[in-house]
Amino acid sequence: MKRTTVVHESKKLSRVLEVSLQDKKLQTPTYFPAISSYGIKFSVLEQFYFLEQYNYHRVLVSAYDLNNLSESERKKMFSWMKRYRKKGVLFLDSGLFESSWKVDTKWNIGSYKNLMSQAKFDIYTCFDVLPAETGKEDKTKFKEKTFGNIVESSMFINNAVFFPILHGSSPGELIGLVKDFVDQFPQLCNFVALPERDCGKSVLERAETILEIRKVLNNNDCRNLLHILGCGNPLSMLLFSYCGADSFDSLDWVKSVFNPTTLSMNDFSHLELLDCACPVCTEALYKDAEYSEKALLHNLLFYKNFATQLQSMILNDNLFSYLKIHLGSKIVDQVDKF
Which of 78, 106, 165, 197 is buried deepest, with most CB atoms within 10 A? Predict the structure, then answer.
């Protein structure tokens, strides 16, 4: 059974964890650039190739997208993934996000299992279930289906880290589902993933939800790792790390450009407006790079440095001060009352 090690705990519920992945180690907080076919102008192969070529050693890929590649594209992708795993951490998501947006009801847990048998991964999620919207009976069936899929999915791969994904139609429903899951399946709580959007409508509501879920997980074991799906806003990552979240993924790295000074997310075309002093924006090596390539590399360097910075601030017990600088005392004080 894979477990994390708590390296350091700091103010509120922030901490640094270390995860052992066979011959690789992973420290949190950390960020996984996600690769997707939905709403992205770069192909799945282009996104993965870029990450590999520039040695970003974390990536989340969609099983649904892999399944929908042509035979030749899938063969190429699997070859690249095999090479990537020698140094990078490969995280497989069930692809529910892409399949639900495309209203593809043919994608199911059997399809997911079949795709997983074709390649190796360091981390994988369960085949998750979207929440029921009406009726007590529907909500009961939703919980039963969610837990059933988690148990079934947990047996797909023996030597990879397994993440159950829990959804909720409201923060209260999500917190309740996590409590029930921890009570019924404490042995499957080592790693847990939640979608950011299910945690609430405002950033403060989401922070409070994450804080409550962190407490629930800590009651089982403080080493349990909490991953937030679809979260790549630096200010949100900063606040949620303070509240006990450990890792994040999103598509933001291919949608925006980031200001390392203000932590703001900007239009993808606005890199030249940032007056950025990072190596990608200032060194001659990248002077003639094509714009999109330069912007994506700038983003990856930002996320790499930001994750390292988060870890350092927690280790040195000064995340709280940094949080006040970027979010203001009023917001931080309100979070401290949760």
Answer: 165
Cα within 13 Å of Cα(22), Cβ side: 14
More confident residue, 22 or 274: 274
Cis peptide before 234 (omega within 30 of 0): no
CB-side neighbour CA atoms (13 Å) of 310? 31
Q: Which of 296, 201, 291 is nearest to 252 (CA)?
A: 296
HSE-CB of 81 using CA atoms within 13 angstroms: 25
Please state the separation of Cα 331 from the chain's center in Å: 24
Q: Please list the residues that pair with 249 across neighbouring strands.
A: 32
Sheet holding 4-9, edge to edge: 4-9, 15-21, 24-27
The alpha carbon of 335 is separated from its chain's Cα centroid by a whole number of angstroms, namely 22
pLDDT band at 96 (very low <50, low <70, confident <90, very high): very high
Report residue 134 CA to chain centroid gap: 28
d(CA 278, CA 265): 16
Q: With a cut of 80, say whether residue 136 has pLDDT above it.
A: no
Tallying the residues shown for the chain, one arrives at 338
- Contact between 310 and 319 under an 8 Å Cβ cutoff? The reply is yes
Which tens digits make up the pLDDT trace of 261-315?
A: 999 999 999 999 999 999 999 998 888 889 999 999 999 999 999 999 999 999 9
- CB–CB of 81/119 below 8 Å? yes
How does DSSP assign 178-224, residue by residue?
A: HHHHHHH-GGG-SEEEEEGGGG-SSHHHHHHHHHHHHHHHHHH-TT-
Identify the weakest region by mean pLDDT among 40-54, 70-84, 134-148, 200-214.
Answer: 134-148
Please answer whether residues 238 and 327 qualify as being in contact, where contact means their C-beta atoms are separated by less than 8 angstroms: yes
pLDDT higher than 60, residue 134: no
